[in-house]
Design a protein that fits this description.
With 57 residues, the chain is mainly β. Helices cover 12% and strands 44% of the residues. Strand 2 and strand 3 form a beta hairpin.
């Protein structure tokens, strides 16, 4: 998957706040993503992110 820092992605699962659009902040073994709706930042393992990305906006 070709994802870069600063990309906005739509995920298959929603964040608990109800948003499913996230901004990529850091890429590595873990991805750091920020929810567009509430601003919460989360670290998620790479394999989980790549499986749950629906599309790159």
């Amino acid at each position: 998957m070709n994802v870069n820092v600063g990309d906005r992605v739509e995920m298959k699962k929603q964040h608990p706040c109800g948003g499913n659009i996230f901004t990529i902040l850091r890429i590595g073994m873990d991805f750091k993503i920020r929810c567009e709706k509430c601003g919460r930042e989360v670290m998620v393992p790479r394999n989980k992110i790549e499986k749950n990305i629906r599309r790159i906006i």
